[in-house]
Amino acid sequence: MDIRRLEVFCKVVDLGSFTRAAEAALLSQPSVSEHIRTLEEHYNEKLIDRLGRRAQPTHAGKILYQYARRIIQLKDEADQAIKQFQGNLSGKLAVGASTIPGAYLLPTMIDSFKSSYSSIELMLKISGTTAVVEDILKGTLELGLIGTLWKDQRVECEEMFSDELVLTVYPDHPWAKKSSVYPGELLEMPFILREPGSGTRIEMTQGLKKAGVEVPHFQVVAEVGSNEAVRQGVRSRIGVAILSSLSVAEDVERGSLVTVPIEGVSMPRSFYLVQRRNRQLSPLATAFYNHLKEHC
């Protein structure tokens, strides 16, 4: 079995396109098609359905994909282990992160990590918490940093960093000069929310529920997919929001946003390093894990 063919096959599945897989693998599209055809002949099964411009794995293709990922991972780990034995750890490592740790915590960690391991190419994939966990379960990522404790027996979560969610308003908002607001008052104002599945949304919903406030009862004027979009919405006076203190720190310092305490409500949150349970980390992932532990 040619591992290169399995790598090309996985790229077709991951990217959903022969054209994009060819670009990513630095091959011509006919070469990609030939790799897939050879695999299909080997297994005497159709592995990829070609649906217009989309390419999707068949049931047999989904089975092969899971094993192909494991084979490729073992091959990469073997390469890394030999290089580590030779005192020259190098290679590529993809790390996932939800938006807050991806934007405000990991960049400095990656920079300091690369100063110690200059031969390692580290790629940061920022997405929602749910998407990060899905990539961990699929095996496309070994490590991810997320903003909520994920309850799934298939993954392990380890607390790494801390943060706090804060009510955020624009400077001339009626609440801006108040010492605090009552939880029930949140239902009276136009509110900007993160999208369902984001760590911020999950932690906010749980924190406010303890105070008797249900997020579905908010006057929602916008629901967006990034903290930057929420901050911009608050600065533009579209509404108020509950955001990570890390994400609004610069705005608060400049005076473009104001945080207001909620009476009797505290919403501390932690960021968790997530990995697949019972899966041994590669030498590269182990080195990055140890680096995070040293600096958290």
TrEMBL record:
Where does the source fall among the domains of life?
Bacteria
- Write down the PROSITE patterns for this protein, in alphabetical order: HTH_LYSR
Q: Which Gene Ontology molecular function entries are recorded, alphabetically?
A: DNA-binding transcription factor activity; transcription cis-regulatory region binding
A Pfam entry, by short name: LysR_substrate
* Entry annotated with the keyword DNA-binding: yes
Keywords for this protein:
DNA-binding, Transcription, Transcription regulation
InterPro entries (alphabetical): LysR-like_Sec_metab (IPR047788), LysR_HTH_N (IPR000847), LysR_subst-bd (IPR005119), WH-like_DNA-bd_sf (IPR036388), WH_DNA-bd_sf (IPR036390)
Question: What Gene3D superfamilies does the entry give?
Answer: 3.40.190.290, Winged helix-like DNA-binding domain superfamily/Winged helix DNA-binding domain (1.10.10.10)
HTH lysR-type domain boundaries: 1-58
- Tell me the protein family, please: Belongs to the LysR transcriptional regulatory family.
| Protein name per Swiss-Prot or TrEMBL | Transcriptional regulator, LysR family
**Gene source species:** Desulfuromonas acetoxidans (strain DSM 684 / 11070)
